[in-house]
């Protein structure tokens, strides 16, 4: 059986990373470096499109950023304005055709890429079909691109076109795009579910999914793009922005818990500080427990584990070592590949855990198969007692907003009690953070739909059925 360890597909992960740059110099290499900084957000496919006057240059394919863009390919991508995406499939299978960005040949060529999930995709597709517009991909950004382009072709008004998009699309989306020979733009959904930031260096500007990309490229962080905001930066670097449609904020909690890099700042809350705060709240659940050592499941849980150990006054050690050439099991393409990869991915430092009471901290428990195998590795290494700690509350419901959570029946917390989960994974004790812990640590208005079942954007039964079917096809 072939194991595609490097592919991220079909299972929880953000998702995608987007970036757009307008500069006075060629942008292809900057876009490439930005994608490298955002590679953790998607490993299915990647693409770059640049604009030189009204000519566009495109390169996209499946695979990792470094594989797709050797130096000779970057040199072909001419232009001082461009956008790029590294993709994780949540709608549509992984293929070069479905790789983003996409563009249309209007009077001015218009390109788009996004991070999120447009939940009324089926409705938009049907409406376009009635008008004689047939899609060439199976990804959700294509209807949005056609809607925007048609409005812009009629009005030549960016903000009218952006407002049309905001009023028509449902779900989550952080869009970057450009209108050739005019300028670059960003549009963020009214709830701000997916992140999007603005940076500046001299006269040039960048949009990106995470501030770590700005840091990599030497741009100064300016601010987050606001929920419901549309921003346009022309080729003379003049900035215009308007909040066109804003609803109650619902930022995805999983960005801070798992997806975003610890160096990033999202909605003015540092990811690293949020994870430290989660560790401090978790310590309150373990005050009465005897613990010899705290270890993290690398890499995302390190900050929480370190803070947990600090607050409790116990040793912190690296008890599990990660093979850095193996992708995250959380977002592996299939359950078989996840099972095959766990032993390859992690090894135990026996001296750190043998004959000890170990508190092992992970960022989350989704299906619990990985948690179960980690506990077996620690048992085999001689751990005397294992307390398994999750810095995310129990995940009980699917996500329809860009994290490809499994169907409800695959989520172990959907129909099992705490004790049943503890017994399944083989821990001596199981501790979850609570939703209140999460809100206290992150300090933002959060989307916690996957925890509580309270969805900020309603999803129709037809859309749910479509997502379930699409997942099976992928």
Describe the structure.
The chain has 474 residues and is of the alpha+beta class. The protein has two domains: 17-250, Glutamine Phosphoribosylpyrophosphate, subunit 1, domain 1 (4-Layer Sandwich), CATH 3.60.20.10; 270-451, Rossmann fold (3-Layer(aba) Sandwich), CATH 3.40.50. It contains 18 helices and 24 strands. The strands form six sheets. It has a seven-stranded antiparallel beta sheet, covered by helices on one side. Strands 5-6-7-8-12-13 form a six-stranded antiparallel beta sheet, covered by helices on one side. A five-stranded parallel beta sheet has the order 18-17-21-22-23, with helices on both faces. The chain is globular. The two termini are 17 Å apart.
Produce the secondary structure layout.
Elements (H helix, E strand, L loop, with lengths): L16 E6 L5 H10 L7 E8 L2 E8 L2 H4 L2 H6 L4 E7 L14 E3 L5 E9 L2 H10 L10 H15 L2 H11 L2 E9 L3 E6 L8 E5 L2 E5 L2 H7 L2 E5 L4 E6 L4 E5 L7 E2 H7 L5 E2 L2 E2 H13 L9 E4 L5 H11 L2 E2 L3 E3 L12 H11 E3 L1 H4 L3 E6 L6 H12 L4 E6 L21 H4 L2 H8 L3 E4 L2 H8 L3 E2 L1 H4 L8 H13 L1
Parallel strand pairs: 14-24, 17-18, 17-21, 21-22, 22-23
Antiparallel strand pairs: 1-4, 1-10, 2-3, 2-4, 5-6, 6-7, 7-8, 8-12, 9-10, 9-11, 12-13, 15-16, 19-20
